[in-house]
Amino acid sequence: MIGEARQAPGGGRMSVGQIERELGKLRTNDDGTLALRSSVLNLIVVTDEESAQEITASVSKLAGRHPARAVVFISDPEGESNVDVRLSAFCNVRGGGAQVCAEQVTIHAEGPPARHLESLAGPLLIPDLPVFLWYPGEFSPRSLEFAAMADLADRIIVDSAASENHETCLREIAALIEDPEMPAIGDLQWVGLSPWRSLLADTFEAPERAGDLQKIESAEILYAPGGENRALLLVGWLASTLGWRPESRNGGGQNLEFSGPSGWISVVLSPDSPDARLRRIRLYSPDYSFQVSRHRALSDVRTTVMRGDELLAERTVHLGSFDLGVLVGEELRYRGHDEAYEGSLRKTVEILDL
Amino acid sequence: MADTHVLQNVLRDEQRLPRVPEPGVMVIFGASGDLTSRKLVPALYDLAAQRRLPLEFAVVGISRTEMSHEEFRGRLRKTLEEQRSGEVSDDVWESFSNGIFYMPGDSKKAETYDELKELLKKLDSERGTQGNRAFYLSSSPSLFPAIVENLGEVGLNKGENGGWSRLVVEKPFGRDLRSAQDLNAELQRYFDEIQIYRIDHYLGKETVQNILALRFANGIFEPLWNQHYVDHVQITVAEDIGVGTRGAFYEEAGAMRDIVQNHVMQVLCLTAMEPPVTFDAESVREEKVKVLRAVRSIPEDEVENYAVRGQYVRGWVFGEEVPGYREEENVDPESVTETFVALKLFVDNWRWARVPFYIRAGKRLPKKATEVAIQFHSSPHTPFAHDETESLAPNVLVVRIQPEEGLSLKIGAKVPGAGFEVSSVNMDLLYGTAFLEEAPDAYQRLLLDLMLGDPTLFIRADEAEGAWRILDPVMDHWSEKREVSFYPAGTWGPEAADALLERDGREWRRP
Fold it and tell me: How far apart are CA A222 and CA B456, in angstroms?
């Protein structure tokens, strides 16, 4: 991608009018022509000082597929009252020198203003475009601040692994999806499962094996620290799709039992080395074993279907990127409720409740 | 076994997971050719690496060259590495290429097909390809009838055990109406039309598909898209390159067969068609065929008034002196093959009555540009003084397909200052650059559609024939009258092309 990042000088507290004017100036090219603004959505991000740099980098990468007006809040409700606005644009040149820019407004909000971010975000949104609200880190779904921000949004993106207590976080998100006042919610841990789910589905594409989905007897999932929620959501997905009912949870939450259409299913979640959040999934039916397994050092993943010792099908493909920007970009493609996710999350909470 | 077939893969039953085709084999005839190594296999490799192909997938290459599976795989990998400057994953290639097989064989001989049938059966049992096959004809068109007949005679025109069988045909779809009808009859002797996928890679381009999105996803353009508001339409498909090493091929084809019959006619159809009821293959193709049927026939004795052919002579393109067509490699020094075509067509239906469609396509024009320009009528009356509106031109909406995809609208605006001087201003919207990412390769899109069984972006028999029916009288006239107008390389075609519009009081746009 060819692109150019432009920064406006200065900063400090600015009015909405000043911000719009300065953003307009950022789109002015050296030769006096004006680059177009290109935007398909508004993206509001709420983060803290510590993660700000990584998040800002991800946001500028998103400009490729999802050109947006991004409003990034670096929020510290504890500090002295202060608002500081920085403006930048990411511009792309193509063909005959024509330029298109995506814009970013970065606002440091400290003290009381940090508890009223909606008052800063609202006037900066581009009309007629959907609003995505992204919390890359911890968030407090029961706070008034969260509710006020959620009011502005058409969809909220969270990361259930960013929280210290990942199980509580899943429960809180599950409570949000039951709240009719809330917009649709997406979890980056779920997005990270998409390639795994697709690869697993591939192994049942042969008609003679599709029937084995109803005969799964056991499953093993290897995950790394930080991958607990991915592993849990994967089990939740299998259970909700295949009609498994959670029955018991033992061994520190790692041994699960379900009752399914053709008997009991046991699932073992095992922690593994920390290099990949999910490392391997295996499903066993009476006749076959199905495995999707990540290479230790590579971005590739190998899928196999075995009958006893006989290798029936094998394939290695790219697993795809789990870069933060890629995961968020994937979420930005969806506007409405993701029923598969919501069903899987409900089932996951049923498991946690055992 | 029978009841397991009706069981669905519930894991796949979800909007957010990509659709993956059923297991299957792609058989490529003419596999030692360039198209296989440069386009087809790289597209399949990318699809495989991006998890868009089924786990049970195989490729079988056939051509006369003696080669082992390993040699074939090695050749394909070499080309891929050259294209990707070494960025080919060993593991992914290894696993993908394990499913690539090569079978030396003469496609005119029946025994080749017995052997192929055995190989495919073996793959069904060893690689689980489920009796589904797509046959890709990438060989010389002269072999198409023999291949199709042989496939039919050994029963490969039907999938094995309830599987499917599909046939992919590369352009040219014949040389004229008669040969296209003959070819279609040959294909349809053994394959039903629904099994036949005629590929025009132009339709796989995102930018071409965007014409449909622009027209049918936006409410504001369609009300203007007719003879009440449109004065005329100009379609330009310009290339700045010459024939290069393809001289021998081009001598046989010319711009009419190479570009106009397929790419240009497709763009015409997408521009002029009525909104399809749904975006399925038959609805979309039905509307395209209706456009071709509505195009007024050019009487053979009036060809001169409707068509111009040109050929480039030595000239300058972007600061470089380039040879004339007759000086190119493998070109007859007295050749009258056209490298430029201009046409005036009418689409005789309610929407487009009396609106001329001016079409031009050629090589060695000043720049590479593909666009559709909708020129609107002038405003019926301007209240401003005549000398203040001199630089005001009628509104033009340009749909640009390449190189910078986008829309451009020419509107009148007041020039700042005293008085009321009004001038035309171009407003450009580059929706292509609004999304900064590169679009996927056209072949990737089309091969995936083929495997998924979606022929929307492929050409139906009556479309191919409909396009020839329009062009046949012109080509007949040209082949009798062996004359061609010349234009210097780096200009917008011969003077006769300008005259074609001047007679109507119009002129070509500069793209």
Answer: 43
Are A143 and A198 members of one domain? no
Chain B contact set for A285 (CB, 8 A): none
Q: State in words which class domain B204-441+453-502 has.
A: alpha beta
Q: Which of A64, A305, A320 sits opposite B436 (nearest CB)?
A: A64
Q: Are residues A130 and A255 in the same domain?
A: no
Which stretches does DSSP call E strand in B364-449? 369-376, 396-402, 406-414, 422-429
A205–B9: do the CB atoms touch at under 8 Å?
Answer: yes
Domain that holds residue A217: 194-326+339-352
pTM for the full predicted model: 0.84
Q: Please, are residues B23 and B66 in contact by the beta-carbon 8 Å criterion? A: no
CB contact under 8 A, A205 and B49: no
Do residues A222 and A343 share a domain? yes
Q: Please indicate, yes or no, whether residues A80 and A134 belong to a single structural domain of this protein.
A: yes
Q: What is the pLDDT along chain B (511 residues), one digit of tens a residue?
A: 333 334 578 888 777 888 899 999 999 999 998 899 999 999 999 999 989 999 999 999 999 999 999 999 999 999 999 998 778 888 899 999 999 999 999 999 999 999 999 999 999 999 999 999 999 999 988 899 999 999 999 999 998 888 999 999 988 899 999 999 999 999 999 999 999 999 998 888 887 888 898 899 999 999 999 999 999 999 999 999 999 888 998 998 999 999 999 999 999 999 999 999 998 999 999 999 999 999 999 998 999 999 999 999 999 988 889 999 999 999 999 999 999 999 999 999 999 999 999 999 999 999 888 999 999 998 888 787 777 776 678 889 998 887 767 788 887 777 667 777 777 777 766 665 555 455 678 899 999 999 999 999 999 999 999 999 999 999 999 999 889 999 999 999 999 999 999 999 999 998 8
Catalytic residues of B: 263
B91–A206 CB contact, under 8 Å = no
A58 within a domain of the structure (yes/no)? yes
CB B111 within 8 A of CB A295: no
Does residue A148 sit in the same domain as residue A218?
Answer: no
CA distance linking residue B408 with residue B405, whole number of Å = 10
Domain boundaries, chain B: 18-170, 204-441+453-502
Q: Are residues A145 and A223 in the same domain?
A: no
Task: Provide, as residue numbers in chain B, all residues whose Cβ is less than 8 Å from the Cβ of A316.
Answer: 91-92, 94-95
Q: Count Cβ atoms below 10 Å from residue A83 Cβ, excluding itself.
A: 15
End position of a domain, from candidates A104, A137, A153: A153
B242 touches chain A (CB under 8 A): no
For chain A, what is the domain count?
A: 2
Q: Measure the CA–CA gap between B199 and B194, rounded to whole angstroms.
A: 14
Give the relative orientation of helices B69-83 and B90-97 as an angle to the nearest 10 degrees: 140
CA of B442 to nearest chain A CA: how many angstroms apart?
A: 19
In a domain, A168, yes or no: no
Shared domain for A85 and A223, answered yes or no, is: no
Q: Is A198 inside a domain boundary?
A: yes
Is the complex ipTM higher than 0.85?
Answer: no
**SS3 readout for A63-75:** CCCCCEEEEEEEE
| A110 domain-assigned | yes
Distances (CA, A) of A309 to A209, B17, B346, B499: 17, 30, 68, 77
Same domain for A134 and A273?
A: no
> Distance, in angstroms, between B380 CA and closest chain A CA?
32
Contact B16 A1 (CB under 8 A): no
Fold classification of B18-170 (topology level): Rossmann fold (3.40.50)
Q: Ramachandran region of residue B364, left (φ > 0), alpha (ψ -120 to 50) or beta?
A: left
